[in-house]
């Protein structure tokens, strides 16, 4: 037995994680976590990321795990270090991202007795983790090696089982944590390694599938609504089913069904529902009847568009089916009449083989031709709205146009990360459906404006694909710390910073009319970000026109490192432009 028992147990744990294919570990500095840090650093099979700020580290791990679909490990010391993981753990829980959170702790005898840097860590993340366990304090007992291996395997299995999500393992370590010692041979030789985990997705039986295929074929007017979901492979089978059935698909930009490869049929995709449905006063009489479905089939998280949510709520006499791989209740509208608890990729891949091609559908034509007319009008308005402000001494780039421009200039297979607040709403309203495969990401599990820079850096860390983040200035400010990761690891992230000096979204809300209290919401800060960006080794460019934007974006796609393109906009003007564009599109409905 070694003099110091920690490393044997932790090494057994770490080597089991590596055997099971864990590739990335994000380590923040601290003394109590020394056995974990040494073990990961020396083991050599996992890529280690040294990240100073635990809050940012956890969001980075989240971005990395979401974009790869594989579990990422976090390691930190005891105390508030562990508490700083909470926001990202919450996001991971609600957006189903696999994280393995390892927090170091003092042994039980040193808790609740006034010991320094010791807080209640057992169960720290509450219901926001799928599983949590406290390890026994390593004491040299050989059985703990087997337990450590088994726990590592179990943490991977649970993080990856449906629905994916975070797990927490609290590690008590008794001093001395050092000096360094040799790992005993028996850790590597005498125990079973690499537990094989056989697991499957939920699947329906052949007879149920046949029944559903018949049932779907008998529906005249069906409508798909696909909210945020991050399986790119769902687009092809689902859109094929939609084409066969002639069911329109209202596709959230985060559904991965707006920007797809050439071979995927986009005919049924409706991308302008947010503009169409916001005119709820016109949604009655003839238009309402023409667009009203007999059945709605919903997938993914709740759609980004508020007006789409309101529309679905209004369809309270319509049969609504929720398809989900897990039995978490994805029905915030309480309108579901059926739940199909099955893996959507498998379901639609199998269904498409069973469905005949429907010739035409008047219902689909109504949706798609209206979508077409709105799109034409909206594209025209977006291109011309700024002309109304020429001559005014204000920056007047229209924030929504970022996404029509990006649709053109983003290279094939790029990743587009959108910040919460207006970026995610603008991508919904203005990003067109197109044949160019892109991966669209955002933190929509809990929709925080924190940690977005770090999450986007995590998303670009695991790939050679170009990654672009669109973010508001308040969200950018919130996560300035995250920029260090770009400098440390020379990550190629291009950030489009929409600087309207405050929370622009609040100017759209009724709070904007309450002048005395509005400053509590809009929070202008007067910050200039150039020097901070440069401090982190980034290059900063202001953009003044759209041709300038294109030139700088193209250059950014060629260059390396952190690049920030800043657009200065004016909150009040931005609201006015959005309203003018939406109201011009209203004419299409009259
Ligand atoms: N704090 C967190 C952590 N998350 C939140 N979602 C909020 C507060 C509430 N919130 C939503 S949007 C927003 C705030 C404070 C303003 C964001 O401003 P900015 O990032 O500049 O984007 P803009 O509204 O200008 O598009």
Automatic annotation (TrEMBL):
<protein>
    <recommendedName>
        <fullName>2-succinyl-5-enolpyruvyl-6-hydroxy-3-cyclohexene-1-carboxylate synthase</fullName>
        <ecNumber>2.2.1.9</ecNumber>
    </recommendedName>
</protein>
<dbReference type="InterPro" id="IPR004433">
    <property type="entry name" value="MenaQ_synth_MenD"/>
</dbReference>
<keyword id="KW-0808">Transferase</keyword>
<keyword id="KW-0474">Menaquinone biosynthesis</keyword>
<dbReference type="InterPro" id="IPR012001">
    <property type="entry name" value="Thiamin_PyroP_enz_TPP-bd_dom"/>
</dbReference>
<dbReference type="Pfam" id="PF02776">
    <property type="entry name" value="TPP_enzyme_N"/>
</dbReference>
<dbReference type="GO" id="GO:0030145">
    <property type="term" value="F:manganese ion binding"/>
</dbReference>
<keyword id="KW-0460">Magnesium</keyword>
<keyword id="KW-0464">Manganese</keyword>
<dbReference type="GO" id="GO:0030976">
    <property type="term" value="F:thiamine pyrophosphate binding"/>
</dbReference>
<keyword id="KW-0479">Metal-binding</keyword>
<dbReference type="GO" id="GO:0070204">
    <property type="term" value="F:2-succinyl-5-enolpyruvyl-6-hydroxy-3-cyclohexene-1-carboxylic-acid synthase activity"/>
</dbReference>
<comment type="subunit">
    <text>Homodimer.</text>
</comment>
<comment type="pathway">
    <text>Quinol/quinone metabolism; menaquinone biosynthesis.</text>
</comment>
<keyword id="KW-0786">Thiamine pyrophosphate</keyword>
<dbReference type="GO" id="GO:0000287">
    <property type="term" value="F:magnesium ion binding"/>
</dbReference>
<feature type="domain" description="Thiamine pyrophosphate enzyme TPP-binding">
    <location>
        <begin position="453"/>
        <end position="566"/>
    </location>
</feature>
<dbReference type="InterPro" id="IPR029061">
    <property type="entry name" value="THDP-binding"/>
</dbReference>
<comment type="function">
    <text>Catalyzes the thiamine diphosphate-dependent decarboxylation of 2-oxoglutarate and the subsequent addition of the resulting succinic semialdehyde-thiamine pyrophosphate anion to isochorismate to yield 2-succinyl-5-enolpyruvyl-6-hydroxy-3-cyclohexene-1-carboxylate (SEPHCHC).</text>
</comment>
<comment type="similarity">
    <text>Belongs to the TPP enzyme family. MenD subfamily.</text>
</comment>
<dbReference type="GO" id="GO:0009234">
    <property type="term" value="P:menaquinone biosynthetic process"/>
</dbReference>
<dbReference type="InterPro" id="IPR011766">
    <property type="entry name" value="TPP_enzyme_TPP-bd"/>
</dbReference>
<dbReference type="Pfam" id="PF02775">
    <property type="entry name" value="TPP_enzyme_C"/>
</dbReference>
<comment type="pathway">
    <text>Quinol/quinone metabolism; 1,4-dihydroxy-2-naphthoate biosynthesis; 1,4-dihydroxy-2-naphthoate from chorismate: step 2/7.</text>
</comment>
<feature type="domain" description="Thiamine pyrophosphate enzyme N-terminal TPP-binding">
    <location>
        <begin position="9"/>
        <end position="122"/>
    </location>
</feature>
